[in-house]
Amino acid sequence: MKKICFKLARALYSTSQNTEVKICVIGSGPVGFYASQHLVKHIPSVKIDIYEKLPVPFGLVRYDTFFYTNTDITQHALEVLSTSKIKEVYLIGRRGPLQAAFTIKELREMLKLKNCGTYWCDSDFVEFSGSTGDVEKLKLCVNKLEGADILRQKAVFTEDVEYLSCDLAVTSIGYKSLEVDPAIPFDSNRGIAKNANGKISDGVFTTGWLATGPTGVILSTMSNAFGVAEYIVSDLKKCSIESKPGFASVEKLLEKRGVQLVFWENWLKIDAYEQEMGKKLGKPREKIVTIKKMLEVAE
Ligand SMILES: Cc1cc2nc3c(=O)[nH]c(=O)nc-3n(C[C@H](O)[C@H](O)[C@H](O)COP(=O)(O)OP(=O)(O)OC[C@H]3O[C@@H](n4cnc5c(N)ncnc54)[C@H](O)[C@@H]3O)c2cc1C
Fold it and tell me: What is the per-residue pLDDT for 187?
């Protein structure tokens, strides 16, 4: 069977057999679940299908932060980290603390880290350099901030440069949504689906990082999801709902394309397998890291 990466977690929150309103949620990240939760509570006869492109749900939450050994960090990453000889780590930002995408809570946590020093410096990462092909140093450019609105100021290069000696550079400069469907107006610059308070057009809404860009933590995305879901509920009251086949036709299409479907029951198999593997290593779970293996276990 041909297997591709579009997989599906379905009807996790469906409550009624007498379907009057069908809602399709694309993406099973926290926002997809929070919005669905709100919609189920406020639209009695709703049927929601959540579609996910990976065989596993929960979006970035599955891969979030850890503390070494008693968490679900994957074994291969743990082994590499435990033998690491890294002594010094520089975290370099482009703008000042006021413009940063991280939250105050994250900053506070960082400042409390043992052996961690913080140096504020208006620098920007420009390029790696090294004569042997290995990284030897980073060229950093001193920026100036332009614009009257302090929260929307742009970082602009100046002539000033600094060099930072290092052996390894890890770029962690953002998470940007990509356009997948030209029918959805998209701002490629900001990496967001164009929307007004979550609404793209009649019957089409967006929330979470696709709506706001990559900023904030689960709590802020939760408020955003609830806010947009509330908007959907009030908007639905104003428009007439056209009956559509929903999953019945999507399933046929996916079958025609030879896609291996992963339903909630299949995800539970992956979940049980990961927890079992984790138990052997004294961890909550050992995450499967390849889609191929996820699909094998899900079958
Ligand atoms: C490295 C990192 C660490 C973080 N740590 C924390 C933390 O410790 N605490 C905290 O509160 N927040 C943390 N966050 C922020 C948190 O992860 C986000 O706020 C949250 O995940 C955003 O939710 P979302 O549902 O909008 O997006 P996502 O979590 O990205 O979920 C989107 C989902 O949609 C799916 N998808 C994408 N395209 C398609 C498609 N075409 N069809 C179907 N499905 C699709 C994706 O596979 C994914 O499952 C962290 C973020 C990052 C990047």
Answer: 96
